[in-house]
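FW: tagging you since you asked about this chain on Friday. Here's the raw sequence from the shared folder, copied in full. Didn't touch anything.
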Amino acid sequence: MDALTLIGTVTLVHLLALISPGPDFVMACRNTLTHSRTVGIWTAVGFGLGIMVHISYAFLGLSWLIVNNTLVFTIIQYLGAFYLMYVGIQSLRHFQSQVDATTAPAQRTMSRLRAVRMGFMTNVLNPKATLFFLSLFSTLLTPTVSPTTLMVISIILVTSTVLWFSLVALLISHPRFVAVLKRHEKAVQHFFGWLLIAIGGGLVAASWFW
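HL: got it, structure written out here
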């Protein structure tokens, strides 16, 4: 497979993986709708940084260790599951504190650093992303691929991740859409909280059968 075909193939596969709903998508929607469009975009930046970690361990050969060591992958899976459940629980508790506190508007703003960190942790500890990159580097991106091609692909993977989830943040933060959601703010907050908990619980349950 020539370089251009390989780049196109990997890009298409990655875009399909991005579009399919998962923990990253839920977190992007949650941060955008419960905070702001800006927070959603910075969360997308965090996802991009997480992609860099997945690419790095694949480059360094650590993918072999993860593939051949069930314990390592299980630890990643449990960390990701518990992190999602933690954020979900915090989401449920955070809304209650907003209702009770007189300084609620000031508490609603999430810092850029925290948004990036949340996106980063969600992506790095996402077993779906881990499995995707393990399969990608074991089938398409073999050691025979040139360093230049790998570099181009890496830039595309990181950039497309940030752009896609930034687009998600822009679309779901449209004023008309937000105006409707504001009338059901508590339900929205609880929905994403319970959804994150459910995804985390699903990952734990899935680990028993893998």
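FW: Residues 7 and 153 are 6 Å apart (CA to CA).
HL: agreed, and Residues 95-107 have pLDDT under 50 and may be disordered.
FW: great, closing this out.
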